[in-house]
UniProtKB/TrEMBL annotation:
Residues 1-19 form the signal peptide. It comes from Falsiruegeria mediterranea M17. Keywords: Signal. This is DUF3299 domain-containing protein.
């Protein structure tokens, strides 16, 4: 009987440990395995990306026009641009053919949430963006890593945004109010449009949380180290978006 009780206590302890993950960093939400993928645009310089986008645009214009003079001019400019890229070792036609493949890989990486946190009771700090209540009347917000995201700077990747249902009496008094939330988090992707500051923003979140505890935090006078790292990453994010510009037909 004692052995049975001891085993029961051990199993119960293991279950509680699994269910209560505790304090998370934002990096804990990312499925790191999904971040390693082949991106043919990654090593291109800004100038090469710009030239590649121009080639894609000229190809589209060449297809659309029937004017012989325009076609001749565009054809020559297109040939010159491809030759210049080829001299840099860049195969423009092949790269343009890979645009949808690369876009899908980036999307998958951006949405990939760490399955290890799915269903866990966690605590996560960040900044809230008020959102409309759910159909059942429960108040909702979005939690993001830094102030200004989705308005002053682009939204974070979906795996760095949490859609939160507030199962408490607390409500945000302003946008980007700093808080620490505790509740059950789940890898449940959602998309909806929310008005943020100057207009509607497509909010794409890889996670949802049923928050049962809210701890308001004091506003920090300076951006955190995580925020600075995020800003530094924005250059690469925008550079990647230039590659997405090749999707124009």
């Amino acid at each position: 009987m004692l052995k049975f009780l001891s085993l029961s206590v051990l199993l119960l302890g293991a279950t509680v440990a699994h269910a209560e993950r505790g304090m998370l960093d934002w990096a804990d939400l990312i499925d790191e395995a999904a971040q390693s993928y082949e991106d043919p645009y990654r090593d291109l310089s800004a100038e090469q990306l710009t030239a590649l986008v121009e080639v894609a645009r000229m190809q589209s214009q060449l297809t659309a026009t029937s004017d012989d003079d325009q076609r001749s001019e565009l054809g020559q400019r297109l040939s010159d641009a491809k030759t210049a890229l080829a001299e840099d070792g860049v195969d423009a036609d092949w790269l343009i053919s890979q645009r949808w493949v690369a876009a899908e890989r980036r999307r998958n990486a951006a949405w990939a949430g760490d399955a290890d946190v799915d269903g866990q009771i966690v605590t996560l700090g960040g900044y809230v963006i008020p959102a409309p209540a759910d159909q059942d009347g429960v108040a909702t917000v979005y939690l993001v890593p830094e102030r200004g995201m989705c308005s002053h700077v682009p939204p974070p990747p979906p795996n760095q945004m949490v859609r939160v249902r507030l199962n408490s009496d607390w409500r945000p008094q302003t946008i980007y109010e700093p808080v620490r939330l505790t509740g059950q988090i789940a890898v449940v992707p959602t998309e909806r449009e929310v008005v943020v500051v100057d207009g509607p923003v497509r909010m794409q979140a890889a996670f949802t949380m049923e928050a049962t505890k809210v701890e308001p935090l004091a506003f920090a006078g300076a951006m955190s180290a995580g925020g600075k790292a995020w800003v530094e990453k924005m250059t690469q994010q925008l550079r990647d978006k230039e590659g997405d510009g090749l999707n124009e037909d």
